Amino acid sequence: MSQKPIAVTDTFFVSPQIDADDIRVAAEDGFTLIVNNRPDGEMIGQPSNAEFEKAAADAGIAYAYLPVDSGGITPAHTGGLETAIDDAADGKTLAFCKSGVRSLLVWSYAEARFGKPVAQIIDEARLAGFDISGHEPALTMLFDAHKAPRTDPPV
After folding, report:
1. 69 assigned to some structural domain
2. Which positions ≥6 away from 55 have C-beta within 8 Å?
3. Which of 33, 38, 117, 133 could form an S-S bond across to 62 if both were Cys, CB 3.0 to 4.6 Å?
4. Coil, strand or helix at 14
5. Among 65, 77, 71, 70, which residue's Cα sits nearest to residue 109?
6. Considering the domain boundaries, does residue 152 fall inside one?
């Protein structure tokens, strides 16, 4: 791969921009899911979602397109990541964007939303080389919402 993926956990890795050839290498390295968090057309010359989707299909691995734009990270991103991971074969996930930060934040928000303790998320990110401590209030809100009893009326 042109960039060595950064391990956040044993099964979740982030990377700056990759290219379609990197997907084949990722499959050879045991990755079973590629997540693209970069919107098409964000930068001149970047590979397109369609190119990545084809490369993933050719390599026999799962692919999810969850672009994070200026609107920020939404429940669609965090839920989409969790669904993609659940649907992919057991193995490693490689998520990428321009620098790797958006991908890390989508993962962080998803982990908090689905119940991982905030201190653990921040520590895992720190050990991977990312300081996301400024996101602690949002992560805590997501974690607390996970713990809150459901107030939806019965169906």
Report:
1. yes
2. 20, 21, 23, 24
3. 33
4. strand
5. 77
6. no
